[in-house]
Each structure stands twice: as C-alpha cells, then as structure tokens.
Amino acid sequence: MIARVLIDGPSELVFDYAIPSELTVLPGCRVRVPIRQKTAAGTVLSITPPAPESDFAIRFLLSLIDPEPLITPVLLRITHWIAGYYGSSIESVIRSILPEAVRTEDNSAKTRRLATATENSDPQALAKLEKRAPRQHAILTLLLHAVNRTLPVADLGEANSAALKALEKNRFITLTTEEVRRDPEADERIIPSTPLNLNAQQQLAVDAIFSQLQAPSAPLLLLGVTGSGKTEVYLQAAQQALNLGKTVLVLVPEIALTPQTVRRFKARFSHITDQVAVLHSHLSQGERFDEWHRIRKGTARIVIGARSAVFAPLPDLGLILVDEEHESSYKQENPPRYQARDIAVLRAAFEPCTIVLGSATPSLESWQNTLAGKYQLLRLDQRADSHSMPLVRVVDMRLEAQKQKGQDAILSDKLRTALEQRLEKGEQSILFLNRRGFARSLQCHSCGHVCACPHCAVALTYHRTDERLVCHVCGHQAIVPRACPECKNPGIALQGYGTQKVEEVLSKILPAAKFARIDADAMRRKNALRDILKAFKSQKL
Description:
Rossmann fold; 4 domains; 5-stranded antiparallel sheet
C-alpha cells in the first residue's frame, strides 16, 4: 500500500511512500520518512493501493512516530474541507488540529519516580538496618508511615540514591514511575453545585436535546434572553450525554470566558473534575500536551475551550455546545481562516452528534437557517430567576463630545458619576470596549491621509506601550511617523481611542481606584488573565 504523506514545514510538500509490511499505517498517523539525504516527520493524509508498474521506484517510509493515528477520520475529513472551502493550505490546518506541543517529538509526559515499601519491610528487617545502614533505615521508616507506604523519590533527597538502590536490591522497596498531569486549573478551589429546578421552557429545551442525543438530526438553536438559564440547560444536557457514554465539547468565544465556564462545569461535575479538560492558547506547552492526550485517550470526557477547541480529538463525541454563537471571536483571523461555529456544525454532521447553538442575539446565518427549517428553534423567553431585565441607559456621545469641546468623548458624565458612586460604596465596575490599543488610527489634519496596513488596507492602530502602529488583521507593524507620509505636514494626530487610552483616563479621574486592563496586549504573560480574575473575584480590584 502507498501512504500519501504531508511533510512538516511551510513548503507543503506531499510525497508518496510505500508502507513496509511490518508496519500498520493508517490515515492520520505521524510517520518518519526519507526525503533527499535526510529524514523528516510528516502526517499521513491517505492510503491508496499501489499504482500499476511504473518506471520509478517508491521509497519506503521509515517508522511510525506514534503507534496510533493522532488525527481521527472525522478531523481528517474536516482538514480537507477547510482547505478547500476557505482556500487554506492543508499544512496550516494540520497545525491547528495538531498543536506544536503534540507534533514536537521532544515533548513527552511529565513523570516522577515513586518508592513503595514492600511486605519484606517488617519490624525485624527495620531493626537490623538501624545500626548497619542508618540511611536505609531512615528511608524505610518514612515509607512505612506514609500513605500507601509510598513517597516520591524526590521527597527522599538526591543524596539517598545509593540507599534506595540497596533497598530495591534487597526487595525492601519497589521503584516505579508514574505520569504527573500538568493541570492548568490545579490551584482552583471548586465548590460543588447541584442541578437546579427547571422552568417549563428550560425543561422543553433539555427534553429536545435529550431526544436528539439518541438520534442526532438538525442543529438546535437555543434562543434565550440574558439570564434565562441557558447555562443550566447546557449542564443538564451534558449530564445526559455523559449518562449515554458520550463525550461533550463546550465552545466559548473568548479565552476570558473559559475559567468561569470551567468552574461551573467542574462544580456541577465535582465527582469527575479530573475528566474536565481545557484547551486554549494560554496553556503552556506541557499543559497543552497533557490535556490533548487526555482528550484523545478518552480520560477527559468534557472539553471546554475557545475556537481552536473545535478540533479536540474527542472519542465518542455526543454533544457540542456553542455558547454565544453569534460572537465574531469564533472567526479565526490568521491562516487557516475559519469560522469555528460553522466547523462545529460541520463536525456534528460528520460525527454524527448533537449540536446546540446558544445566544440571546443569534447570528444572521443561524437565524436564516432556522427560518429555512435547517435548524430547530428552542426558546427561553423569560429570565430563570423571574427578575426584571437590567436598566439600560443609552447616552448620545455626540452631545458629550460637544460638552468636552470637540474632543473624543471617552467617559460620559453619567458614566463617570456612576463609577464614582460605585467606588464610594466599595462596589466594583466593569467597562467594555471592543478596541485594543491606544488610538484607532493616525490621521493627517491637512490632507486626510490615514496610516493604513499595506497588506490589508485597514487603519493601523496606535499602541503606546510599544510606540508602534499595528495591524490587528495580519499583525503588520510600522514606526509612528513624525509627519504625514503623503503631504509631509507635521499636523498628524491620533484619532479615536482604545483600551490603553481608557486606562490612562481612568487613572487620572479615579486615582484611588485599583483597576486592571484585560486585552490581548496585557495578557501575554502566562496566567495573567487568571490572576486578574482572581483579584477581581476577591475584590482586590
């Protein structure tokens, strides 16, 4: 048989290799192959029968990197679909499906050595060692008083390696190795929760999802107003999927939403918290390696993550939950460009499994599919707690700009007063702005020229921290010009504002307040988001 192999690397080389008879190679396997005078790693895209006799010889692939395929047949099918539909390279899609932490051969599971006292470690043996080998006696005493008579070798001290070998040789202890999970949520304290009583509409939604779990058909659009209890529907639907022996995939639009979603699911499934996995770009290489392999092996039965989690290698996938399905954050801006919500719908059709798209304001695509009868509509029209909707005040910022002498109105008088009142009462506030950076653009007052990205034709955003102009589409960066690049007029000025500007304004008008900024620029440090959310939860901000 012939394996068509995609060679790792940006060149997107695909070659055919003969499969040695002693190897069992399947599509999705990672293999090592000869290429020119070297060897390279690659991914098997397909297996085909050998062609009729030809004038050239086909080289044999060398070995399997992993004994089993890392890409499931469904994900391999999605790979080809994304490459064809979005015009992306197959190699870029493979990189999304197989993270670098998984593809890199140097990465492996973290392990630790354990020492366990055997049945031979009786009081008589211990007494003999006390004078003859005091170090061995001390180690054995520690083990006999430990839980399960076992301790990590690291806790016994590096200087005791010779004593450990002697104890093992005399069969007083056994030395074993176990994997240690690098848990990204290890320091989270979880308070168990119990299922809530559902209202009539929630119960109808859960019943409809349960019916589909047994016989998947059309995608379900869960249209629920804010506070209508969509999360409780998700949790009870997930429980039903687990009861049927299925796994669950939960997608959230932003990494910032992942921690609170994880807490809610771990609280509800507190008896199986080790079966909840997390996937997002803020994980370390080791954490991503461990979480990905736990998912592939079926150890983790619930996966929660942002858009890239749509490629989680879950076996027996039974339910996909897409929260806030209307959010533009589900669109991947960098290659391969894809809409994670649509890929989730596609995956549900390929598996097949049940998919629920939840939103208070559905996307036009999902609403049109519902009107066309392609999606089934589930409604939650009332708030679950029977409380009234929050009061919303709309402020005309054009009038605010006039009050502030034509300058960009960032905080209205009403908002500033409300913030000051919350601060006086010791309460907290959250400000949302969907633009990062300091200013949205740099524009010449003379000729009107706007500094734009040469690749994307969109205005470059000014970032004060780095003193750079940045394209938020492709990542292109440019130096801030001192004068207009077109007319050379020095009257070039910043227009609009972003999160960095808001942070500066707040620090001036509320100097006593403790606050933090959450955006892609401020969250580069590992665990930065988690630390800020913890500080906010404990009212330190």
